[in-house]
Specification:
This protein is an alpha/beta fold. The protein is built from six helices and 14 strands. The protein has helices at residues 60-70, 91-98, 193-204, 222-245, 251-258, 267-283; strands at residues 18-21, 24-28, 41-46, 49-53, 74-79, 101-104, 134-135, 141-143, 148-153, 162-166, 171-175, 210-213, 287-289, 299-301. Helix 5 (251-258) packs across helix 6. The longest helix has 24 residues, at 222-245.
Length: 306
């Protein structure tokens, strides 16, 4: 299966602010993993009076690096794209140190209720303690000294995921919705594939020139890259449906074939991605199962769609 043109060339420069756009600096947390690439990106937007986007996990070294980068500047707002523990927990300490207002779409929540007996595999990854001072509605703008950031609600990776557009600059802080280095994890019940695809379409309607993501380097041609992501997801959906029509009944069987060249450490996340596609296929009336869809469920092509 063809992938979008991913860019794995990235120098994290831990502890050092890196200019990535006019009045925008990136500071990367030293928390590399199979899910975070080289680490989480925090962004500082503005000149003398600034906003911080995604302060990151509770990490003392990164907190001190942020405070050094912010020395002599007023921090008025702390924006949080979503409430995974690699993005939001440090907002509490940064707020206490600066008096800034925290801004986000809202607190953590799942994309759908848990089914009876279902366990949320990413429950420990959620920062359920974070509640923003300001819940920013879709297309609402916060203005600072020489900058304005507009919330673009982009559910899919999480239900409360938001990107932030730097008005008049064509720059979008795309967080975990669009990243140059890899596809986004969409894992029920926190995320939903139908939401993710709709959010991709929503961003494709815009005419932005640069995306600055939550992990890895910039996306320099957002429209072309997102079209590649959309094609990739549609092909993945087709692959899942093909495996079900070929006789695979379990997600484990499908993962073995569809993700045979993927790092085995990511097979758990791959299974959740397949589940997200299956939930979408059930909504579309193309697949059926006995009971709520789950990682251990049995799946059949819907009658008339064999």
């Amino acid at each position: 299966m063809a992938d979008p043109a991913f860019d794995l060339e990235f120098q994290p420069a831990y502890g050092t602010p890196v200019k990535v756009a006019e009045n925008v600096q990136r500071l990367t947390v030293n928390n590399p993993s199979a899910f975070t690439f080289h680490g989480t990106n925090s962004y500082i937007v503005g000149g003398h009076s600034v906003a911080v986007i995604d302060p990151g996990p509770e990490d003392e070294v990164h907190f001190q690096a942020l405070m050094r980068a912010l020395e002599g500047r007023e921090v008025t707002h702390i924006f949080v794209s979503h409430t995974h523990r690699d993005h939001s927990p440090l907002a509490k300490r940064l707020k206490a140190a600066t008096g800034a207002v925290t801004v986000a779409e809202g607190p953590h929540r799942a994309a759908r209720p848990l089914h009876e007996g279902e366990r949320n595999p990413f429950a420990e990854s959620a920062d359920s303690d974070f509640v923003p001072d300001l819940a920013l509605g879709d297309n609402e703008t916060v203005t600072g000294d020489g900058w304005a950031l507009t919330a673009l609600h982009t559910p899919g990776h999480t239900a409360n995921h938001a990107a932030f557009a730097l008005d008049r600059d064509g720059v979008v802080f795309s967080a975990d919705h669009v990243m140059a280095w890899a596809t986004t994890i969409v894992a029920p019940p926190d995320g939903a594939m139908s939401d993710y695809m709709a959010s991709l379409d929503r961003l494709l309607e815009r005419d932005d020139r640069l995306f600055l993501p939550g992990h890895g380097g910039p996306v320099n041609d957002p429209a072309a890259f997102m079209r590649g992501l959309r094609t990739h997801r549609r092909m993945r959906e087709k692959a899942v449906l093909t495996r079900i029509k070929a006789g695979d009944r379990t997600i484990a069987e499908m993962v073995k074939v569809i993700y045979r060249s993927t790092d085995p450490r990511l097979h758990g996340a791959a299974a959740l991605s397949v589940l997200a596609h299956i939930e979408d296929l059930i909504e579309k009336g193309l697949v059926e199962t006995d009971g709520p869809p789950s990682l251990t469920g049995l799946y059949l092509p819907r009658q008339g769609n064999v």
